[in-house]
Structure formats: structure tokens, C-alpha cells
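#struct-queue
[09:14] JT: dropping the first one here, sequence first, then the C-alpha cells:
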Amino acid sequence: RKIINDWRQDYNECRPHSTLNYQTPSEFAAGWRKGHSENEDSDVTN
């Protein structure tokens, strides 16, 4: 079970994904957060 869990974690979290432009999920998330945090103030309307 540990071997499968380790493989699943590596597959889902550590390896680059083609759908994320060959970035790891954490790299993609960091870039997404950076891009969205810069635009948050400009998207607010009252």
C-alpha cells in the first residue's frame, strides 16, 4: 500500500503534466496565484 501511495503522490504532485504545459502542479499553482494576485485589485468593481 505504501509503494502505491508513494507512486500516486509522485505521479499526481511531483512529475510535470502535459496539460499544465509540462510544469509540476506546484509550479503551475504558484504561477497561477502570482498572475491572479496581481489582477485582484483591478477586477473589483462597486
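[09:21] JT: and here's the second one, same format:
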Amino acid sequence: MLAGSLQIEVREWFASLIPRRFPHRRIALTAAEHGRRLLSELQVAGSPERPTCAQRAGATRRVMAAFRAFAAWATALPRKNGTVNFGHHEGMGAAGVALIWMNQVSEELLYALDWRRELLCEGTSQLPSLGGCFMGIARMQTTWPWLVDAVAAASAGRVRAAVPAPVLFAPQPSQVLLHILGSGNLMVEVGVDKGQTSEELLEALPNLTILGVDPYLGRYNGQESRERLDGMGGEEAFRQAAQRYSRFQGRARLWRQRSAAAAAGWTGPAPDLVFIDGEHDFESCAEDLRLWAPLLTTGGVLAGHDYRAGEQGVVRAVHQNLPDGATLHLAPHGVWWWYVP
């Protein structure tokens, strides 16, 4: 069952992303657990093709009870002011994001069907048509814990940040990058791995050219990768990336070298976007930011991945290199960016 798989994702995946020492971990996981319980009730409610009056009323009461529990918890959270403008909401912290999450769930339920008619058994039941509502709330399960975490990290660092409304429900990092790129035609990706992100962008944007930079040393975060198990960073990753890049002759080039060497030897036109996803320790990440930022075109975008509490090297490097007066933009999946003056 999908609700069961979401429970595993929430408890294992997001629990592993946010270390226990961070207080917002409980907020993110509790909100996601409320969402999972609601999804379980929605799944049961939408199962009968021709529900009886008793089934309609019972399912409605259980769905409403699950939502009321979510709402009661979210509204009772002590909300301390944060530093993040979240969509149209200003000064949000982790608890404020959880409250907005609950309100988004409320809207999905409100527009799904007339719950009063189900409770009173009026007309034909619309419970079997709950699939759209279910999927909308399920998508939140995979994006909003990221947002709680990112907002908490930015607020802890007291940096000016914003989460733009168009990226709130982006299902993949590539979808965020599509929003950021706009009309940009040249992108550098530092840390290509197997090339999935580059491939998705090149398929979506026929005028885009990507230069991928990755030494493929078989290491991750300074440690030897388990290449035989996951192929991360070594020969197998290089083979897959090269194969993907070969599909886009003239629009994709893969440089197998270190980031610093690639930046030092750059002689091409100024990139519109540089996406940093290399080593995640502070020194390496900070060096990447310092070396690539000056190469961007005026108004270009310096962006990256893995901005989250569990990657303090990335968070510190981003905060310390954020230009004076610039706004740090945040999105699901640990994506961050700012615009170069």
C-alpha cells in the first residue's frame, strides 16, 4: 500500500536526513506522520466502489478526525520568528512552515469533495474519486520535510532567505533548476555523478548547453565509496554519465577533472548558472563557491545541492559566501541558490 511505503520513507529517509540533535527534526517527522495517518484514512475511504451510507459517514468521520489531530498539533506549536520569507509569508521558522503545510493539506481536502454530503449520505458518493486529493497530500510528504529542514537551517544561521512559491512542490531537483534557469543557455554542473540531472535538463531545454565537471575519484565526502555496491563517484558512475552526455552531441561536455582545475582553466563564455554538488565538507564546498562565482554572467545564478542540517559543511559554506545584501533562495531536496550582482 502506498501509505505504508510513505511511512517507511518518512521514518527512515527523513529521519536519516535530520540528525537527532536538531530540535526541528521532531517538527518535520511529526508533521509527516500526521500526513501519513491522514493518507491511510483517505486510502481506506476511497476503496469501496459503491460505499454504503454507513461506510460514507464512517470514512468521513475518520478522515476529519485525522485532519483535526494534524491541525490541533500544528496550531499549538510555539512559533519563534525565523528569517525566511516562505511564499507570501514573512519571517517563518520551522514551526511556521509546519502550520503552512497543514493549511495546504486543508485546501486539498476542502476542494476534493463535499464532505458534509458524504456524512449525511446525500446524492452519489464521491469518495471513490479521492485519488487526486490523495496524490496531492502524498506529494507534500516528499517535499515539505525538506522545507522544514531548510528553513530551520537558514533561521539558525540568521541569514536572509526565501522559499519562492513556484518551487514548493517541485518533485525533483531538476524541476527547481528549470525554474531557476529561465532563459539561460549555459550551465556548469560541478559534481555530475551518473548524469541524471543533466539529462533531465537537456531533454527539457533544447537550447541549453551543459558542461559537467567531476573527477570521478571513487570518493564521497572524503571517503572511499562503496563502488561495487552503489557505483557512487567511480568508474561505473563515469560510464553512465558519459553515455547520457553522448545523447546530446554539441550541447553536453563532460570534463573528468577536479572542480578547482576546471574553474582555473575556464576560457569559455560566462555561464548563466553554476550548480555545485561536489564534496560536502566545508573547505571543499567553500572553495567551489569562491572559484566559480566570479565566472558567472552578471545576474547569473550560483546554486547547489544538499543544503540541510545534516550537511553542516555545505550550510556553513553557503552562509559564509552569501554576498552582502543577497537573498538565499531555498527549495525542496536541499537545493539553494542566489543571484550574482
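[09:30] RK: nice, looked through the second one.
[09:31] RK: The first strand starts at residue 84 and ends at 86.
[09:31] JT: good to know. The chain is about 50% helix and 15% strand.
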